[in-house]
Amino acid sequence: MFGDFRRRKVDWFHENKIDYVDYRNERILRRFINERGKILPRRITGCTAENQRKLTTAIKRARILAILPFESETYR
Amino acid sequence: MIRIYETTFIVNPQAEEAVVDRQVKDIADVITNSGGKILQEDRIGTRRLAYEIKGLSHGHYAGFIFEGNNELLTGLDRFYRLNEQYVRFLTVIFDGDVEKVKVQRATDYFHRDDDRGGRPDRGDREDRPRGGGGGRGGWRDRDDRGERGHGGGHGGHGGGGGYRGGRG
Q1: Which residue in B37, B76, B107, B128 is deepest, having the highest Cβ count within 10 Å?
Q2: Which candidate from B51, B96, B109 shows the least CB-CB separation from A25?
Q3: pTM of this prediction?
């Protein structure tokens, strides 16, 4: 599918030197969920294991606070 | 044990401003009265909720970063539960640097109500499928289901009956 070419994965948080993944920041967290509201897997986000863990926690917290949806049929 | 916690809560934005202020202050009082120390107050403001809670589509968000112990948390939780005007609340251990997070939040935050700027820049998502608008349920979703399919494979076709049979 990708042929010989595979893009180098980059950890967004590492790139931007963010060590606290903020559960209140909808704009950032939105990048890491799909249209359904599911958390994207690491193979797609490119996050390090540590940051993916932080990200998952943050997204789950954001869902509790209705910042992110638990599920959504259509992406807004 | 004294730790740093962060609490966030949602109150009804349709209430008068004085009432909302009162509600925020009440939480501050609960914290300080039980020996806690407030390190930072956050009035995030009114924003749209991702899903309706108690018939509300918008909520007024506020929060505190504070120092406190176990008993304080119990008291705070109790207070939230007894007062129904706190539509939703969350208290977590704060594991960041207070000053750094303050700066981070000041520079990039959702403070604006209903930021409808669409999806953020896509520069960092190069390796996602770029099917455009119709990309829903692309290869990624099918992939996910595939993985799960293996686990549930046995019970799958038998349905509920098969499962029960296996047990008895």
Answers
A1: B76
A2: B109
A3: 0.68
